[in-house]
Amino acid sequence: MLSSCDFKPVTLSDRDFFVQHYRRFPQRHSDNTFTNMVCWNYYANYRYAIVQDCVLLSSTIAGKTRYRPPIGPRNPDLLHEVLALALKSDETRPFVVLDQETLEWISGIYPELQFQPERMYFDYVYLANDLAHLPGKGYSTIRRQLNQFMKTCSPLVEELGTDNIEEINDFVEQWCEWKDCDSNPDLASEKDALCFALAHYRELELSGIAIRSEGKIGAISLFEGQNEDTALVHFEKGLPDCKGIYRAINAETAKILAKKIHLYQPGERYGCGGDPGGEDALSSSSYGPGAYARPGRAGEGGLTKLICRSSEPEGKVQMRERIIMGLELI
């Protein structure tokens, strides 16, 4: 019988294993990606087990554990064991589904189970070309803001690398001072995740860019490919010194990714590079309605293309859902 003792921590040394496994079983939601797990491990304590060619994942936040469905060949007996283990958790909604296909599979076996979306973990999926070129009337306000930024702030775009990594780390400290991370546990955890990503960007094979305005780095983004037609933007951050810089880092990131894929799906815990609603967040009022991958307790759904994780930009997007199931429903 499966137990919590069968799980071990996700570590940086596990990357090759997860890369190989996810090539066979691609992930559509950002939460299960290896980079997300290893960077946010200080906060979410991700653990995994390998059972019958399947990967089982758990996360523990504030002492309460949630489990995911088996990632691998469909195995109803193993699913039953994971559900039984989830019942033992102190978490009231201990089972998380991240994609629609898995949700339908589980619902076919357990039609009595009810699922609820967990909106704060939605993935927002965009067309990279739309975010890169901002076509049509719907983007006219953003185009004006971006044009004004280009005229007044003399921006330079550069790749993340050894020549600027120290300056980027200094930028993160400035961003955290601006956001007062020390008084906000969520932002403090986000800083930890971002600093881990920067410290290990080579091992994680992350790409990144920075925008330098008036000689100083004022915005950054970190991203990677997620699957054959989707890129995942893990972090996008901007300082308020030069208005419009967050629009610029978003557009410049999309331009790079549009050359490689056709869709953009943001993937960050507190929005596309910041807390929702702030200067460095993509807001629904500015980027428009979108399709979404809806996360919830007991399930999480996903899509493909270009991902930004928790804010609601406008444009042609999908939202990937994360669905959560409560104990009383099992």
Describe the structure.
α8 (165-179) runs antiparallel to α9. The chain is elongated, with a radius of gyration of 20 Å. Residues 262-304, 309-317 and 326-330 have low confidence and may be disordered. A hairpin with a 2-residue loop joins β2 and β3. It is of the alpha+beta class and 330 residues long. Strands 5, 6, 7, 8, 9, 10, 11, 12, 13, 14, 15 and 16 form a twelve-stranded mixed β-sheet that branches. It has a four-stranded antiparallel β-sheet with strand order 1-2-3-4, covered by helices on one side. The protein is built from eleven helices and 16 strands. It starts with 7 loop residues before the first strand and ends in a 5-residue tail after the last strand. It has two domains: 4-119, Aminopeptidase (3-Layer(aba) Sandwich); 123-320, Gcn5-related N-acetyltransferase (GNAT) (Aminopeptidase, 3-Layer(aba) Sandwich).
Kindly summarize this structure in a few lines.
The protein is α+β, with helices and mostly antiparallel strands and 330 residues long. It has helices spanning 15-24, 34-39, 41-44, 76-86, 100-109, 128-133, 140-153, 165-179, 185-199, 245-258, 284-287, and strands spanning 8-9, 47-51, 54-61, 64-67, 95-97, 116-117, 123-126, 155-159, 207-213, 216-227, 230-238, 263-266, 292-300, 306-308, 317-320, 322-325.
